[in-house]
Amino acid sequence: MIKRIYILIFFILPFVFLNASIVVLNGLTHSYKVENGQVYKGKIALQNTGSTSQNVKIFLQDFSYQSNGSIYYTTPHTNEKTNADWIKLNTTFLTLKAKEKTEVFYEITIPNNLTMAGSYWSVIIVEPVEDIKPSDSKQGVNITSIVRYAIQIITDYDSEKVKPDLKFESIKIDKEEGKRILKIAIANHGVIYCKSSASVEIYNRKSGEKVGTFSTQAMGLLPQTSKLFPIDISKMPPDKYNAVIIATDEDENAFALNVELEVKND
Predict the structure, then answer these.
(1) CB neighbour class for 183 (10 Å; exposed up to 12, middle 13-18, buried from 19)
(2) What is the chain's mean pLDDT, rounded?
(3) CA 217, CA 143: separation in Å to the nearest integer?
(4) Domain boundary residue among 111, 132, 161?
């Protein structure tokens, strides 16, 4: 009998689909500013881009990540700020014909007694279900890749009362594929989701003259999570520098750190 190993691949960034037949068309982060007792409606747009029918199951999980690359998908209630109980899906299973599009609808019912300001979140998992067809004709291992999508559902309550609290976890320079990459690990120690970007201003250590400014694209940071913000500094010649590293959110709250950098001659 063939032994089947299923490789589960999660996507939390938009428009990265490999060769998956099921794709999400309307983004992988859905955010809402909410009030007590209110109901909010949303949808997930799906398409089967393949040439055969595909079964899909849909369910809720809690979600977190850290700058070391760890990503955690866990049962609801693992996260004390979960909103999984507030979300009702209109279906948990569907079949999409070849090239067919559909929409999965959900409702978010906010409790009447919510008091703690900040973000509450979970993810809706969209997982294609492979038909298992046992066969005794071959021995060995059959590897099947299953691409699962995690759509973040973020609800912000009284968000105007709180701000992100960004902290630098680590800063280092690594060599990757012939490039020098400044890796800045940033953690959100606050209670509100934000989109953060990182930049670095580099100065000649002797003269104090600015010799370069580099920045990253913005990335979402959930409370009590961290991410790695990579910056290509390959243009900087080997030397010792002073630098100012700045983390900024979408409301232009800025967090700065003075560091010494050494770009080595590899």
Answers:
(1) middle
(2) 88
(3) 35
(4) 161
